[in-house]
Specification:
317 residues, alpha/beta, ornithine cyclodeaminase, domain 1, eight-stranded parallel beta sheet, 9 helices, ODC_Mu_crystall, NAD(P)-bd_dom_sf
C-alpha cells in the first residue's frame, strides 16, 4: 500500500492541479461514475461528526472519510480532517491511502471555481464571501484564478476572525473589506457561502440580476445557506442532483425543481448561463469522485518527483 502523509499531499497540492482534476471528475460524475449514498456518522461525542463518501469509475474506486471535530480549534489543531483510500482494482486491498486535510480544501474550492468559470459572467469582479474560516481563503483564491477580482466583501459574525481574514487578503494584493450581508449581496457579481449555517444567510431581494451564487457549506441534512425563494428566480446547477436533494442546498427545493449537473454543462450536453441578467446557483455538496481524481493527481505528482530524482550511487559516497 502506498501511504501519503498530510505534509506530503499538502506540499503537492495547488489550485491549478485541483482545478484540472476536479473538472475531469465532474464530467465523469455525469458520464461514467457510480456514486454511492453518503454515510453520515458521529464520534463518541455526538458533536464530532464524519462523512464517508465512495464512488467508482473506469480505473478508480475508493472512498473518503472526512471528519469534523470542532473542539480541535481550542487545541490549535484543524477541525476538519480527511483521508482518501483507493482500492487496488485487482485484489480489493487498499492500494493507496492519501491524507487529505489541506488537499480537501483545494478540491472543494476547485469545484466551485470550475462551476463559476462556466456560470459567472465573464466580467464578474466583485466577490461576496460569507464566512471567514479555513475554507473561505481557498474559495477566494480559487475564484481569483478564473476571474479578475477587484473587490472582496467579507461577511462574518466573528469580527475578529473577519478582520484577520481581510488583512491577510489585503497583504496578498486583494482589495478586501468587511461588509454586512445586504451591502455585500447587492454589490456582488459572485456570492459564495462557506458556513455551517442551518438557516438562510440573506434575503432573496438583495441578489442582483446577473449574480452567480455558490452554496458550499450545505453538505448534510439540515444545513441551509440560501433563501429557497431565490430558486424560482434562478437557473439551478449542482455537482450531483440526487445527492444535492438529500444533503445539499437543494434539500430545501421542491421535487419539481429542475436541477442541472455541472458535468453536463462542462461536456456540452446542457446550457449554462444564457444571458448576463440570469441569476445562477451552484450547489457544491462534494463528491467522492472528486476525491478519487485529486488523490490520483497527487500520486502521479509524487511518482513523477520520485522518478526525477537521481539514483544513489555508492561511488559518490
Amino acid at each position: 500500500m502506498q501511504y501519503v502523509p498530510e505534509e506530503i499531499s499538502a506540499g503537492l497540492a495547488s489550485h491549478e492541479m485541483a482545478y484540472r482534476a476536479v473538472k475531469e471528475a465532474l464530467i465523469a460524475a455525469s458520464e461514467s461514475a457510480t456514486i454511492f449514498p453518503v454515510v453520515l456518522g458521529h464520534g463518541s461525542d455526538p458533536q464530532n461528526s464524519y462523512a464517508i463518501k465512495s464512488s467508482a469509475v473506469s480505473d478508480l474506486a475508493g472512498l473518503k472519510v472526512g471528519s469534523y471535530w470542532p473542539g480541535n480549534e481550542a487545541k490549535g489543531m484543524p477541525r476538519h480532517n480527511s483521508i482518501i483510500f483507493l482500492f487496488d482494482q485487482e485484489t480489493g486491498r487498499i492500494g493507496a491511502a492519501v491524507e487529505a486535510g489541506q488537499l480537501n480544501a483545494y478540491r472543494t474550492a476547485a469545484a466551485d471555481a470550475v462551476a463559476a468559470d462556466c456560470l459567472a459572467r465573464s466580467d464578474a469582479s466583485t466577490l461576496a464571501i460569507f464566512g471567514a474560516g479555513h475554507q473561505a481563503e481557498y474559495e477566494v483564491w480559487a475564484l481569483a484564478r478564473i476571474r479578475k477580482l477587484d473587490r472582496v466583501l467579507v461577511v462574518t459574525r466573528n469580527v475578529k476572525k473577519g478582520e484577520a481574514f481581510v488583512a491577510a487578503l489585503r497583504e496578498e494584493g486583494l482589495a478586501a473589506v468587511l461588509a454586512d450581508a445586504e451591502v455585500a449581496c447587492r454589490g456582488a457579481d459572485i456570492i459564495v457561502t462557506a458556513t455551517p449555517a442551518t438557516a438562510p444567510l440573506f434575503d432573496t431581494d438583495w441578489v442582483q440580476p446577473g449574480t452567480h451564487v455558490v452554496s458550499m457549506g450545505s453538505d448534510s441534512v439540515g444545513k441551509q445557506e440560501l433563501p429557497p425563494e431565490l430558486f424560482s428566480k434562478a437557473k439551478l446547477f449542482c455537482d450531483l442532483p440526487v445527492q444535492s436533494r438529500v444533503i445539499g442546498e437543494f434539500q430545501h427545493a421542491s421535487e419539481e425543481t429542475q436541477l442541472t449537473a455541472i458535468g453536463d454543462v462542462l461536456s456540452g450536453r446542457a446550457n449554462g448561463r444564457e444571458s448576463d441578467q440570469e441569476i445562477t446557483i451552484f450547489d457544491s455538496s462534494g463528491l467522492s469522485v472528486q476525491d478519487l481524481f485529486v488523490a490520483k493527481a497527487v500520486l502521479a505528482l509524487l511518482n513523477e518527483n520520485n522518478a526525477s530524482q537521481e539514483p544513489f550511487d555508492e561511488d559518490d559516497s
